[in-house]
Write a structure and sequence with these properties.
Helices cover 57% and strands 9% of the residues. By secondary structure, the chain is of the alpha/beta class. It folds into two domains: 5-114, no CATH class; 134-321, P-loop containing nucleotide triphosphate hydrolases (Rossmann fold). The structure holds zinc ion.
Length: 322
Amino acid sequence: MKYSPSEYEQARRELDRRRNEAEKIQKTHRDEVALKCPELVKIEQEMANAGLSVIKALGMGDDSQDFIKFLETTNLDAQKRRAELLKENGYPEDYLKVKYFCSKCNDKGFKDGFMCSCHKVLLKNIAYKKLCSQFPVDKCSFENFDLSFYPDFGSDITPHKRMSAVFSFCKNYAEDFSSRSQSILMLGETGLGKTHLSLAIAGQVIRRGFGVIYASTQNILNKLESEKFGRSDTSDTEKNLIECDLLILDDLGTEFSTQFTVSAIYNIINSRLLASKPTVISTNLTMEQLESVYTQRISSRILSEYTILQFDGTDIRQLKTR
Ligand SMILES: [Zn+2]
């Protein structure tokens, strides 16, 4: 995939941000520990000095072997003492380590002269973002999904019970996501949280280092149509839709249906199934309505290969304004 200079620049800024953030957190931890247990800071300093001495000694030749051995033993003792002190003060063992987003390249983006996989995923997601620009991927998370909006009375399986199960399913799906994950169809009327939960999945899967495209079906079809008829300066939308690790199609069935849209949707769904790539689709239509809009060929493909999640409840947007 080819990227523009501004996309490389964006990726570099994000890498800098991740690295600074990780180092800032580590510094806060250090300052906190320094107040509570100054001895720990002293040990850290001694270990750093020992490291420098080893480097110096390595330059001295063979006579320094004993000295290096001595430093190594000292260092091991210091490590042990540090672990004990952290535990005594109630800190986890890695509390003073910098926790980089990517431990392979320490958020530098390159390792041994080659571009790190985290950097490649970052570039991909920046390019994909052009298709997701209207969605607040950062605003909808599992943490701010409010199950209390779903009524817990009436039938045996109340909307609250059903939605608690749907919520857990989506959360586990995002946490365990892999390139072999299943595809999901979210069914239910407007305002029941389908977009919120699929955005939460997108956010979590992106944070876990996968390339994700999140887009409204209408928007994607517009783009595909412009590219097909030469009205656009890009031409890689279809390729990206089929190749990304996770494709999330919001609001299937609300677009204006033509022969072009039906065959474009079939092509995307089918190509991804053939390549065993997971797709999440949300729709306000019922299965029967989907079939009448998209032909039986598409709906039976979805029905047999996708996990169906039925959303339930009362329009939350209306409840929130009340
Ligand atoms: Zn990396």
